[in-house]
Structures are given as structure tokens and as C-alpha cells.
Amino acid sequence: MQTVERTLASSMLEIGAVLLRPDEPFIWASGWHSPIYTDSRRIISVPSLRSYVADAITEKVRSLYPEADVVAGVATGAIAHGALVADRLGKPFIYVRSKPKDHGTGSQVEGMLAPGAKVVVIEDMVSTGKSSLEAVDALRQAGAEVLGMIAIFTYGFDLAAERFAEKHVPLNTLSDYNAIVEVARETGYIKEEYYDILREWRSSPSTWQ
Question: Which domain does 102 fall in, by range?
Fold first, then answer.
């Protein structure tokens, strides 16, 4: 049976939303060398996949957070996905900037948020968790009760898990790094000898060369 996790992994590889290049690593902004590059924004350009993702997130919200009052998207990658989910649920939508704007009201949370509102946060990708949790902090400072976060994709780093636990934020995702690597191996997207290299990177991404 094809799960959401594997279906999404396959689709992301197919449209180039995930690139695996162990023989010619990417360099992240953090300085990490990485055999993987993820651009989940490509999902919104494919109508069928865009709808599939929105439907899958919507079902998770209904199942996990039926009491949610508001849907929040993390700028910029999750704004479109969050808005689609809010529309399906008939809920208000807001989004969170990476930092307060430097003009006007100086808002970081955009939209209408009542004090004490129960919010579910939508994110496109979680790596170390730093920027995702900064959005949670902004919502809490604005008076929201954050129920949890649902992300399209996660690398599954231990550091991220620790940070989410420290902030008491439940994290649920549609797909992850392990699913990508397994599907890439099974479909022949990567050479067999690259499989172990990809697994090694995942165990120590900050020191991998």
C-alpha cells in the first residue's frame, strides 16, 4: 500500500522538488555540505500535487487539531499551502513573517488573530527547526495558543526534535528524508553505491564532507 509519505516522496523527486547529488554536494547557507537540496515551492506549480498536499494536511488538522480556530502559514514557503488548508477547513488564515516588518505597524503576524485563539501552524520544510520555532514564538507573543505544527517535509534531524520538545510543540509531517532516500533507491533515481553515503550524511550532517 502506497502511503502519503512515499507518494509525496516519489512526487517530489519526479518534479525536482528534491535533488539528490552525493557526488557533487550542495552547500547550505549554514555552511553544511549536503547531498540533498529541497525546493518544496515547486509543489505549488503542479495543480494535482498542490491539491494532494493541501488535502493531506487538511486531514491531519481535522484528525489532530479539530479544536483549531485559525490556520497559520510560515512565510514564505507555507503561505500558499496554509491558505489552501484554511479554505478547505473554512477557518481564518494568517501568516508569520521571518521577522517584524520595518515599516507601518511593524507586524510579524499578518492577519486577524484574537487573543487566546487556538492556532495550528503549517510549514513547508523543517531542517534544524530554528526558523519554524521562531514563527511559533511570534504567534505566542501575539497571544495565540499554538496547538502544533504540520510540515510537508522534514530532514528528521535530532537537533530539530530536541528544539521542538523544548518548546513543547508537537510536529507532524507528510514525508521525510528517510522516505526520499528509500524511494530514490527503489526507483533507481540514485546509484546503489550512493545509498550508504546518503544514510551517513543523515547521521552527522554538520561534519559530513
Answer: 4-203
β-pair type (118-126, 145-154): parallel
CA distance 86 to 188: 37
Does residue 79 lie within any of the structural domains?
yes
Q: In this predicted model, what pLDDT tens digit does every residue of 134-176 receive, in sequence order?
A: 999 999 999 999 999 999 999 999 999 999 999 999 999 999 9
Rounded to 5 degrees, φ, ψ at 152 are -70, -45
Has this prediction a pTM greater than 0.90? yes
Q: How far is CA 31 from the centre of its chain?
A: 21
- Placement of cell 505549488 in the chain: 44
Cα 94 to Cα 114: distance, rounded to the nearest angstrom:
11
CATH number, domain with residue 159: 3.40.50.2020
Task: Give the Å distances, CA to CA, from 22 to 37, 78, 192.
Answer: 10, 28, 12
Does position 102 have pLDDT exceeding 90, yes or no?
no
Cα-atom radius of gyration of the chain, to the nearest Å?
17
